[in-house]
Specification:
This protein has 156 residues and is an alpha/beta fold. It contains 5 helices and 4 strands, in the order βαβαβαβαα. Helix 1 packs across helix 5 and helix 2 packs parallel to helix 3.
Amino acid sequence: MQTIEGSGRAKGLRFAVIVSKYNDFVTDRLQAGALAALDAAGAADGVTIVRVPGAFEIPLAAQHAAESGRFDAIVCLGCLIRGETPHFEYISSAVAHGLTEAAAATGVPMAFGVLTTNSAEEALARAGDGPRNKGYEAAQAAIEMADVVAQLTSNS
């Protein structure tokens, strides 16, 4: 029986990190976590950061990055904090569906590191230092999926 899984090594792979500027007091921390994971896996030289206005813009930027052929995987980072209106539900749903569609359309892995929290405190708790940072986790998922897709699409 054959098993295909990611190695966790990223040397020679190229990543786009799409980061929402909205709620940057959280997304800057998610970005730092993602960069730490990519650096630990050996991809520090293969990273391009793309800053977008808000979470709603992440899927379009991710799709264009994937279509460029420049990246093996995309790490998508944002932060949505529930407010008093249904806006939160519409945006979080649109971002999740948009990234799913973009990944399916392009075949390029897109890791979902978009926080959907009830409060700023919850968001900050998920963006702390170390490997429990959700940006770190999203980058690890992107690294593994880049390797898995490469294995699945190789001719050997």
